[in-house]
Amino acid sequence: MNRFSTAYRNFGLTISTKKTEVLYRTAPQKTYAEPTITSEGEMLKAVDKFTYLGSTLSRSVNIDNEVDTRITKATSAFGRLRESVWKRREVKLSPKLKMYKVVILLTLLYACETWTVYERHAKKLNRSHMNCLRRLLKMTWQDKVPGTDVLSQAGLPRIYNLLRRAQVQLAGHIVHMKSFGIDPDFWETLA
Length: 191
Fold this sequence. Notes:
Layout: H1 2-10, E1 21-22, E2 38-39, E3 42-43, E4 45-46, E5 49-52, E6 55-58, H2 64-80, H3 82-86, H4 93-108, H5 119-136, H6 147-154, H7 159-175, H8 186-190
């Protein structure tokens, strides 16, 4: 870290040790030991997770925290739009669904193209997606409307399809990187 500090100073920059956090990941099968990383003689704070560019990164290197964070943010956004959009009778269903796609779905699935999604994650995300859609379409659990009918009425695909589409799009971008001067084999050398 001191080398970074020195390099930063050469450009007139400094590292704020109060704001800098360390997320340390041990090798598989090794026990975790709190790292002792210093900068300019000051100990940096070690954390189990932190948010970077809107995504939650964790020491456990799984997306459990990220999925929970996405669901919380999407649910919160849905709630904030309740009075101004969802409950307004003069706003037709079509604009409400467009707003849902642009705000809620994008919040729920932010950066999902980079996730390793397991069934438990997809189920949680789908449950949140369906709960929001049922509220948007003014359906209660007592109506006993199947999920396929909810999606059909909303004209939206299942969350699994949205996840898969985002990941395939990222794969397509990587495959076509050669046309931008980046050799796709470069990524294999990093693995």
